[in-house]
């Protein structure tokens, strides 16, 4: 059923992914919806398992203008939200008609930054029945990279992927095997138009200001990617999404190169300079008369074009290559990776969660042997106490594993109350492959592995947007609490845990590495955790 597909669309059920050949060769369809600052897009892709690829069956766009937020409060307006509700209802109906196996809905900059963004997401769930994932800027950049890579052969050359959206601009340095740098900057075509353009055509002073503002805003991102370009490398600049496609269409028309598709179309710097110079002098009404420019695009094309031109100058390249694939296709690729449809050059992305968690663990000096031990205990408790200590359908397993690997990272700041520091570090770190909601749940699970139970006044508890998330965090944190109680010594004495479950009774037996080893310390610590759990769960837990 579609509802089941929606609810499980971002679910990851395995930590170690087997990326071997998918045995199921039937055709299936996946739908993705990108709720952007200016527009909301629907894409329906038909997967071709034998080819490990997909084709696009339907692509639709609706100009929902979520970026036109209330100037005083910064909130999404009722008018914009109602436009989005109407669009999302139609897109859901379309997806149902195609009998899609998965429907993935992602919201980006406008919803991410609005103070009522989470309320908006809750209303979408209530009114339409869609689960929306609020993705971070870094995760947005990663998905854009996947989308571009799915439709473009990178070869042995590094590529700079540029995505100019309505509210943010992503710049990625990547090759065919890995993204070397992922950046997201809070400048976009809608944002600049709304905040700085009061008269159009803009004056020469406004143009100069915008160029300086864009350059200053992008300096940090440019510096980050530049440091990861090796000596002798000359990256290819790839531009994607609305601004780049509109400019590409204008130039191809002007040069009599009119094309039905712009994938791979190359724009020389002098052609870009020429079209930007022309666009700046025109009114929005005059620009809307140009071929391929809609009325809304004509209003925001100038700031978007200035971003593209300025970045092209900053990275010192003479040509831009266009990609028609971006975030929406990246969501499809990500789904295919996680469901074993891809096994070649993109297959490594299926383990992106594991690799990003390990990276953060190393970054904060977590003892890898001990965190590995705790994560193994946690997986044992999870797998063998389903239906007794938790009723999770699989989503929580991966979140529990990540929290177990990172629960002690707060010791990097201070050993005192380190669980609180762990929450802060996880919350503000990069966990690629996780939605923002999942990211916050991982941080909260780590936060509650020791000391007090969740309280309504806790910030990390307030950030969880609904009761299902709080229940999941509560259950997973109890399992992590049990697991951490067994990690009392620098060197392990426990070889395995034997768990027997019957009705509402759980028997635990700790098996030492060597016969005769004393496990009184571990049993004492485990007993403390059990006493707390008994206050919450109607279950009997015994240590044999």
TrEMBL record:
<feature type="domain" description="Ppx/GppA phosphatase N-terminal">
    <location>
        <begin position="54"/>
        <end position="337"/>
    </location>
</feature>
<dbReference type="Pfam" id="PF02541">
    <property type="entry name" value="Ppx-GppA"/>
</dbReference>
<keyword id="KW-0378">Hydrolase</keyword>
<dbReference type="InterPro" id="IPR043129">
    <property type="entry name" value="ATPase_NBD"/>
</dbReference>
<dbReference type="InterPro" id="IPR003695">
    <property type="entry name" value="Ppx_GppA_N"/>
</dbReference>
<dbReference type="InterPro" id="IPR050273">
    <property type="entry name" value="GppA/Ppx_hydrolase"/>
</dbReference>
<dbReference type="Pfam" id="PF21447">
    <property type="entry name" value="Ppx-GppA_III"/>
</dbReference>
<dbReference type="InterPro" id="IPR030673">
    <property type="entry name" value="PyroPPase_GppA_Ppx"/>
</dbReference>
<protein>
    <submittedName>
        <fullName>Exopolyphosphatase</fullName>
    </submittedName>
</protein>
<dbReference type="GO" id="GO:0016462">
    <property type="term" value="F:pyrophosphatase activity"/>
</dbReference>
<comment type="similarity">
    <text>Belongs to the GppA/Ppx family.</text>
</comment>
<feature type="domain" description="Ppx/GppA phosphatase C-terminal">
    <location>
        <begin position="352"/>
        <end position="527"/>
    </location>
</feature>
<dbReference type="InterPro" id="IPR048950">
    <property type="entry name" value="Ppx_GppA_C"/>
</dbReference>
């Amino acid at each position: 059923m579609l509802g089941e597909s929606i609810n499980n669309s971002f679910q990851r059920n395995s930590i170690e992914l087997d990326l071997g050949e998918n045995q199921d060769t039937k055709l299936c369809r996946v739908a993705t919806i990108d709720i952007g600052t200016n527009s909301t897009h629907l894409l329906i892709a038909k997967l071709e398992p034998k080819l490990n690829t997909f084709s696009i069956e339907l692509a639709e766009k609706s100009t929902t203008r979520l970026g036109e937020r209330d100037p005083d409060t910064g909130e999404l307006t009722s008018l914009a939200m109602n436009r989005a509700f109407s669009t999302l209802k139609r897109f859901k109906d379309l997806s149902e008609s195609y009998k899609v196996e998965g429907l993935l809905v992602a919201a980006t900059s406008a919803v991410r930054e609005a103070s009522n963004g989470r309320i908006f997401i809750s209303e979408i769930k209530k009114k339409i029945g869609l689960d929306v994932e609020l993705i971070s800027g870094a995760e947005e950049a990663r998905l854009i990279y996947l989308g571009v890579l799915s439709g473009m052969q990178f070869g042995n050359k590094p590529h700079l992927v540029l995505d100019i959206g309505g509210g943010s601009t992503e710049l990625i340095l990547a090759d065919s095997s890995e993204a070397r740098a992922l950046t997201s900057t809070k400048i976009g075509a809608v944002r600049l138009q709304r905040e700085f353009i009061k008269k159009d055509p803009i004056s020469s002073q406004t143009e100069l200001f915008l160029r300086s503002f864009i350059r200053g805003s992008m300096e940090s991102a440019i510096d980050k990617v530049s440091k990861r370009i090796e000596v002798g490398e000359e990256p290819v600049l790839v531009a994607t999404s609305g601004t780049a496609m509109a400019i590409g269409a204008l130039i191809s028309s002007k040069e009599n190169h009119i094309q039905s598709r712009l994938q791979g179309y190359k724009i020389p710097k002098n052609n870009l300079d020429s079209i930007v110079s022309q666009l700046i002098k025109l009114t929005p009404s005059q620009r809307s008369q140009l071929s391929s420019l809609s009325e809304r695009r004509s209003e925001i094309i100038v700031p978007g074009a200035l971003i593209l031109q300025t970045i092209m100058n900053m990275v010192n390249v003479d040509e831009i290559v266009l990609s028609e694939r971006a975030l929406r296709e990246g969501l499809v690729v990500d789904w295919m990776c996680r469901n074993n449809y891809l096994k070649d050059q993109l297959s490594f992305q299926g383990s992106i969660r594991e690799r990003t968690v390990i990276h953060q663990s190393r970054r904060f000096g977590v003892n890898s042997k001990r965190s590995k031990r705790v994560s193994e205990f946690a997986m044992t408790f999870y797998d063998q106490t389903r239906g007794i200590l938790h009723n999770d359908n699989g989503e929580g397993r991966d979140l529990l594993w990540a929290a177990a690997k990172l629960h002690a990272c707060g010791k990097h700041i201070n050993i005192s109350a380190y669980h609180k520091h762990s929450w802060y570090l996880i919350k503000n770190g990069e966990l690629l492959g996780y939605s923002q909601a999942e990211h916050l749940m991982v941080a909260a699970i780590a936060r509650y592995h020791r000391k007090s139970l969740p309280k309504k006044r806790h910030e990390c508890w307030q950030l969880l947007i609904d009761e299902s998330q709080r229940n999941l965090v509560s259950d997973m944190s109890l399992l992590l609490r049990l697991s951490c109680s067994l990690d009392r010594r620098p060197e392990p004495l426990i070889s395995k845990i034997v768990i027997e479950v019957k009705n509402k009774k759980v028997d635990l037996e700790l098996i030492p590495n060597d016969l005769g080893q004393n496990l009184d310390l571990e049993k004492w610590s485990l007993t403390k955790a059990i006493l707390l759990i008994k206050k919450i769960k109607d279950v009997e837990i015994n240590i044999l």
